[in-house]
Amino acid sequence: MRHKCLKSLLVLAFGLFLTVFAANTFAQGTDKEPTAEKAKEGLDMKEVIFGHIMDAHEFHFFTIKHEDGTKTEAAIPLPVILYSSQKGFSFFMASKFEEAEKEGKEDYEGYKLAEGKIVATDPSVKVYDFSLTRNVVQMILALALLVWILTSIGKKYKSGQGVTSAPKGMQSLVEPVVVFVRDDVARPNLGYKAEKYLPYLLTIFFFILINNIFGLIPGTANVTGNIAFTVVLGVITFIVMLASSNKHFWLHIFNPPGVPGWVKVILVPVEFMSLFLKPFSLIIRLFANMVAGHIIIICLISLIFIFGQISPALGYGSSIISIPFTIFIYFIEILVAFLQAYIFTTLTAVLIGSAIEGDHHHEGHSSHDNENGLYDDAVML
Question: Half-sphere exposure of 208 toward its Cβ, with a 13 Å CA cutoff?
Fold first, then answer.
């Protein structure tokens, strides 16, 4: 009986909510200005989403709109470095474009911002942009942080801390990760050559991880969500794979053993295409996963303002749902930050391992030594 009464109350509450929502929507829709146009004027979703995931010449945090129509931007402008054959090199801060706009000018020193890119007002002028954009600055900061962490930890190991005694501080955080990449990523896929490629695998793991975490800080750049960043990492892995390949690897691509001749006509082009598709999948996987999470978070937050354009009550009501979901997705993104760094590193080890396979003599010794706990001795020899 109580169960039926509870169901009736829920149906009644849901019906009242739909009635109020429909009444508010209808009332807003009968204004002189359509609701869709109001929402569009109040919040441009295209600008919000692409403004976050695309590169820019500043670190933008938020904008304050005043009653007189003016805006105050909370942002850190970055240096602009341009070169053209007509004007030579030009150096100035990106804030100069905003200052020129406030003064009623369309350009600054013959240059202007058009959809996030710097172009010359004269179409005949070819501009080469060497500016320090937020993606570039953030990668430099991530690289500096990575070098500082690893060098400081390395100095502690040289002094004996962590060797003759238990690791302390940052060592206790980084050492399990290094051991994990060595034992669960490098050695199973690369065998006796794991130590040779371990520095590269650790570099890309920590570099991707640091940039992933940086991208979760409000106002920062989503570097790993930039296709140029993932392309460079994928190309480097592709080059390392080709440089590590042996005759056995190429034989299996252009002349697969034990395969009938008529099958090779189909199999060889497929194998050759897979040579390029494997690093391409690395590029797309990291890019797509990091972009998708950020877009979901932006859309969930934007729902509050979109509904707020229709009715303030709907804006506050939607925040009850949007904010918890945003927090949930944010924690999922922290997990994804570690997961994508691990996946990229693991697949890189798999690709390199496929290129060096076939050395049966060394591989046999490596497996035998691992079974007897003599792996490190084999590596040293």
Answer: 32
